[in-house]
């Protein structure tokens, strides 16, 4: 661990006492205000995009899909030839390719049977001299029901679970960017969890917390419980959809951007050897994202249709084909929200229309609209409000009418919990409660609590599984840039040692040498104030600062060219020794 030289401890203590005496100190339990999505400090970063426009379809309408049958429309039958090729999950290998069947021509009546959820369709127009002109080439999807008799019906308090997730969506940004969608949720009795907190920096760590209840990201304060190493398989990870399968549920998993998918990220994670759920949409995107049409389409589109709409259509088909059957769906979109704060606003009408058209189909479902964390890269992170909201992902939950009637106390408890701090571990416990039909449970102190059960009045980050770096409960006081210069200098020196010793993980004979960082400007600095219980030495009975205390600087630094990197980090200083250490992960907030 890299450590700075000794500093003038007396000056550090005086500086600390100045802020301590001038600031109201919170207690060790968690208290934080609900964010204002339209705080004046962030308004310059907010922009509503126009609804997405994918343009006209490249190909004329030649086929239609009814169930598992694809047919040439009657007006095209006489002078068109079409071929289909089914494809599906490829078992045993790395989860980045498909198993393709043979090409088969449509029959004389213009019909082709899909035997899997996905197919390539290729059509030619007949012309003089028997020359065939290609006029249609596209990949299509449907839900081909699998062994329906094996799955159980939605009866009594058996409920389906439909989870719809959007990457990098804080509660505040959901309200700003998807106003029609948010209004629909609120008008239809979705419960808005206003203080929901992430437990890891990225999607992987938060997904694992929700799906397994385990920790899969490094933290100084908390041990890892599942690895976050590269080149691992996920078949043996205890994801909760396996438990739903064993309880007679049909399962569904769809995630866009196959190149950076959570379990396959850039080929550095292996995904699954066996298909993880009954219906798995990754195979569709693997094929589509390699196609010429996709590469020629506008951002967020495949031909004349948005990718979000395509993936929502697959979920709609799932709801249609398995009506009255117990279902678990994990639907996730990354493409339109991951890299830019405002792009997701172009999807508002699409999400709103999906909910309007499918609300009745989900009447016996617990519907969970959620996210992993807030935006991690955009310029809003230069503001205090922006940095705070990245810790608070969106979470809204709807209970079906039959559960409300069977257990009327649930709504009251959930509304109470929605105003308290909740975490991704709580969401996992909620899924477990659904499986066990555990609508009531006596309180015992633990890391995660089902959102159906009573939560303690006060919680702490450390006991709730939230690393200090993401804890919204700490009292941060802005300090002058001059007073943070020593900590900033230490951080840059620390980073430069890392760069000097950098080994590129790509296997190559070329050795890279990174240009060292230099501070262009300290954009922001704050000091975390410990609670009164910690800062006062009660054993001495006097209002003096205890021994062995430390203070934590939160720094946002912009580096000089060529990188122009925007670095955010926590740097801890021991007040007894004056030494600095880097805490938690260092974040780069731009690219």
TrEMBL record:
<dbReference type="InterPro" id="IPR017850">
    <property type="entry name" value="Alkaline_phosphatase_core_sf"/>
</dbReference>
<dbReference type="GO" id="GO:0005615">
    <property type="term" value="C:extracellular space"/>
</dbReference>
<dbReference type="Pfam" id="PF02995">
    <property type="entry name" value="DUF229"/>
</dbReference>
<dbReference type="InterPro" id="IPR004245">
    <property type="entry name" value="DUF229"/>
</dbReference>
<protein>
    <submittedName>
        <fullName>Sulfatase domain-containing protein</fullName>
    </submittedName>
</protein>
